[in-house]
Amino acid sequence: MSRSTLSRSSSSNSSSGGNGSGSTTDDVKVDRSGLGTVGYAPVKPQKNAPPAPPPTPLGKELESQIRARGPVSVHEYVKQCLLHPTHGYYARKGAVHNFGTGGDFVTAPELSQLFGELIGVWFVSEWQRLGKPAQIRIVEVGPGRGTLCADILRATATWPPFREALTDVHLVEPSLTLRVEQRRTLNAQPSATSTTKPADPAEVTWVVEGHNGRDARVSWHSSLEDVPTGTPTLFIGQEVLDAFPPYQFVKTDEGWREKLVDLNDDGGFRFVLAPQPTPASRALVVEGTISDEDTVEVAPGALALSRAIAERIAQDRGAALLVDYGFDGISPGDTLRGFRRHKQVHPLEEPGLVDLTVDADFGACATHAAGVEGASVYGSTTQGEWLQRMGIVARLEALLALEDITERQVDQLIGACEQLVDPAQMGARYRVLSVVDGGGEDEGAPAGFAAGDRVAGPPV
Q1: How, if at all, do strands 166-172 and 136-141 pair?
Q2: Span 124-142, pLDDT tens digits
Q3: How far apart are CA 109 and CA 351, in angstroms?
Q4: Which of 100, 147, 204, 304 has the most CB atoms less than 10 A away?
Q5: Which domain holds residue 183?
Q6: Is the dihedral of CA 52, 58, 62, 68 positive or negative?
Q7: Neighbour count for residue 32 (Cβ, 10 Å)
Q8: Cα gap 132→328, rounded to integer Å
């Protein structure tokens, strides 16, 4: 099976030619009321520009908006494509089928239980580093189908003291469709004292049972701000940074210009450049921005999430892992791309039916988190190296030694392990960033990281 059929990490500058979830509100708003289309330059070259397919429901809405108000930002286009409450990729009916070999992409938790089990091991290790507090909380941002959370709970059930300390699990998931699937995956049941009315989930106390008698309450939230504070917390965000809508800016002879989405003559969509600086380009583009390309992407939501998690950890104690595909260093330029049925497609095709994604800027996320007093940041390091430091090979060998394992299961486990670790597959493209409480010079690095992985905070 080829790499492109297993993950969304394949990257090409396809949006320049036309190629869960959230926890915070982006800081920058751009009022485009009254904008016309005169003076907007097409982005060149428009490679592989998509033919106008039958319009999707969301495509019709976007067309009406653009005709009435002028081109929209790439940020607004991606946000609506992914999170529109009715037609968005993660909110629409059938969103659960986005995941897995039968959908549009496969994530690491869907690939193998090894990934989630090692996250669980890391959680226990960090709980021990915290001094084994009597109460601990787990928060997952962007839980997909719930597979990763289920693997974590199953793995941590083998450490009774940890599971006795685990008071509750919180899933940050704005999609009601995906919440239903997550409850199914976790086998979460309403407690005996709760109403089972699905239309009013806030009044339902959900419980995950069957983990050696150590139950855990599970709650769902639309944003991180809704998750209660006051308890040491372990955070996990796997393939969530890439889903935050980006702003895109292109360097021209006149300076940086924001890339926008406009209408084609045939009714489809195309990229254009704003004729003048916009509020977003003034606020987000720093002169001297390092990039190998003439396009810069900024995803304020990803930066805000990283900082918000660091602030929570500094306040309540805890630890976090952020895992995604991306870069740590020089920006690769335009990384916006679409995926449908395991194939990379033009990002302006079929709005609402195509998964849109960008590479996570781990360097920027680390810097934002490291700026929080009382939080320490480590990484990013490659996923392959982190998993090997966490003992994925030893865990694989233990599973292969089971007496009832089949030949097919052996092949699947070995293949999945190679896929996760091999630098030519997911091992190098995916990266891992950690935030822990502290800030002292003598503290030890979290499991899977070295002391040299610590990120210095921004200069005061």
Answers
A1: parallel
A2: 999 999 999 999 999 999 9
A3: 27
A4: 147
A5: 108-243+302-342+358-455
A6: positive
A7: 16
A8: 33
